[in-house]
Amino acid sequence: MSTLSEAWAYLTTAENWTGANGITTPTFDGGWRFAQDSIIALTLEHLWMSFAAVALAVVVALPLGVFLGHVRKGGAVTVVTSNVSRAVPTLALLTLFAASAIGFGNNAVILAAAIFAFPPILSNAFTGMADVDPDIREAALGQGMTRFQVATRVELPLAVPLIAAGLRTAAVQTVATVPLAALVAGGGMGVIINTGLATQRYGQVLAGAVLVAAVALVTDGVMARIQHAATAKPLREAAAATA
Amino acid sequence: MDAPDNPWLSLDYLERNWDEVSEQLVIHTTLTLQALAIAFAIAFPLAVIARRAPRLSSPIMGVSGVLYTIPSFALFGLLAPFTGIGRTTVLIGLVAYALLVLVRNIVVGLQGVDRDVTDAARGMGYTPMRLLLQVELPNALPSIIAGLRIAAVSTVALVTVGVVVGYGGLGQLMFRGLQSDYRAQIMTATLLCLALALVLDLLLALAGRLAMPWARRRTAA
């Protein structure tokens, strides 16, 4: 019971949200970083790291998946990557990066999270493009569209629902992975949990866990909205009919 | 860099620390298997209930979907104040995640059984229990095995996060390797994790083949 009230006390103390020195603190070399004692700053940092990781994965995986799906080659490769990536422990990647030239800190975490966000985006983009009805492609080609036009004007719009679903999986998974950053001296909301564990303030651990879960759920909700909005109405109805 | 030699791979490390490495490997393996067994024992009845009572299926699926978005790091942290530091906490967390994967796959598998087949069995006078065990279960087996394989592989990866509460199996080695900047320790633990996931995946695939002789015959034909 005391843990619950401790957590409540932690969450309702204004100082914990703003920190002693505001959102950012100066570093020794004249730069700045997010304050480690402020929930708001850590949340912002968490969102920034997640966004950077997903963006990085999207830039590489989306064009690749769309292209491979369009030419319908490399299906086996995408399946193997997504299966193998599930077996790689996040902690292993984080510690490997931290011990290598990439070093400690947020950049290593962003890179690791991007690698984990890569497979769902790739495989969904591939499946979305490759599963477009061959008759539709034939019809578009028969109407005199070039292959590029078929890819961008016919296949891509039809693949959008699956691509959006892949982005959603990747985003939520990334938000849920970034807390591990605290173990390799990175920032984000994991810091709240990690500090709590280290100082045996379990109320703070509980508060941090609730906050991270809340951010993950909100992300999922926002991404679901985006997925819904990105899906054309007829496709939405078709999906509802099969589900 | 004039630091002492710090190789990524070192047989020397493995030889000198075999006792510790094998101990963590055993912990890792038993934790994974235990979590899978417990999760399956809970997931199967849940999935059957979800299948039999459609009104319960969306809450069961919904709750498992929500639980899955809770970060593992947070979950272990969340449990720690209540169940303490150590094996129980990690096991509960692992079971929770494996459960979600398994329930989904078992429900999908059971729903995929051809209605005509179940109707025929019912017409032949099969009791609900016999129908479940002799008709629905074998037909849903491919999906169940697929779910078990995903759950096994992701559980192996997840055990490492148990390091948060001081019981992470091979994750323990990774974390300590990081703290002491000992690359061979991290790499060895990582490779062992991957190997363990691969072996479990292969064993489950093999078990699936043995349990479904009809599927084998079909692909051979």
UniProtKB/TrEMBL annotation, chain A:
Membrane topology classification: Multi-pass membrane protein
Subcellular location: Cell membrane; Membrane
Pfam families reported in the protein's UniProt record: BPD_transp_1 (PF00528)
Cross-referenced InterPro entries: ABC_transp_perm/SBD, MetI-like, MetI-like_sf
Similarity comment text for this entry: Belongs to the binding-protein-dependent transport system permease family.
CDD domains in the record: TM_PBP2
Location of the ABC transmembrane type-1 domain: 47-223
Protein name, as recorded: ABC transporter permease
Keywords: Membrane, Transmembrane, Transmembrane helix, Transport
Transmembrane residue ranges: 47-71, 91-118, 170-193, 205-226
Automatic annotation (TrEMBL), chain B:
Residue spans crossing the bilayer: 25-48, 60-82, 88-107, 150-170, 182-208
Statement: the UniProt record of this protein carries the keyword S-adenosyl-L-methionine: no
Subcellular location: Cell membrane; Membrane
Record membrane topology: Multi-pass membrane protein
Keywords, in A-Z order: Membrane, Transmembrane, Transmembrane helix, Transport
PANTHER family: GLYCINE BETAINE/L-PROLINE TRANSPORT SYSTEM PERMEASE PROTEIN PROW (PTHR30177), OSMOPROTECTANT IMPORT PERMEASE PROTEIN OSMW (PTHR30177:SF4)
Protein name: ABC transporter permease
